[in-house]
Amino acid sequence: MIVDVHVHLGELNKHFQKWWMDELYSGFPNVPDRNVRYREDPLEGLMEDLDTAGVDVACVMASDHRRPYPYGSGSSYTPNDYVAECVRRYPDRLVGVCSFDPLRDPCEARRELERCVREWDMRALKLYPTYDHFDPRDERIFPIYEKAIELDLPVHFHMGYTGTINAPMKYQFPHLLDEVGIRFPEMKVIVAHMGFPWVDECLCLLMKHRHWYADIAYWGAFPPEFLIEMMKKFDYLCGYNRLLYGSENPWTATFTKEVLNLNHIAEEKGIKFKIGEEDMRKIMGENARKLYRI
Description:
12% strand; 12 helices; CATH 3.20.20.140
């Protein structure tokens, strides 16, 4: 089973604006046709991408970035209800990941988290510190962490470089999560994007917090040599039991093949690297299947 733990859905001019998406991708030289984000029917487009990639199940993430942007600017907001409806249409292929801005209304956020789990069986919570301008160590968010622990729900943190202009770098560093792990040792945490470019910070977190995970979403934007060198470090320091495959749009249709072919790519480029079939199965689905109860 192949599980992609990191994909997004949304309709242009309804859930996000083109200017916002252009900013998001502006810093990356290797971006495939971004029109995949502007499809008339994004859900059916995603299913086509998953079929092309050979992905069995994908985790679809909601988002709410309304508060940090001026009223009427039309930033990104993909409601939990929308994600739930997409999952309802493809219950065997999609898993819902709920989200909210934890500082927009912390009390309501806690109630929304429980609603998403009880009513829609969502399997994880996604939080975006840099997009939503909050420090994950903010004590106003702690009741949400407590609720996630109560519900046995992994918390997926967006970490690392963020291309949108209004995303402060001070909230992008993985080390901000360390105090969260100290205060809430029972919470399951997933560090998105390996915290790129602060990969070593992410690795240190996972060495210390032995039940935490990281995903490789967005790494399709980089030369495969970047991914190979990171995975060599990850294997040596953490082992592959806590690394998760994720693509991130617009690499959903293409990144799976690259990861599955890493041994061949490394051989072609003269890089000393080899990953066994069992470890590849863990990364591509087995780790996620257990974590998300798929």
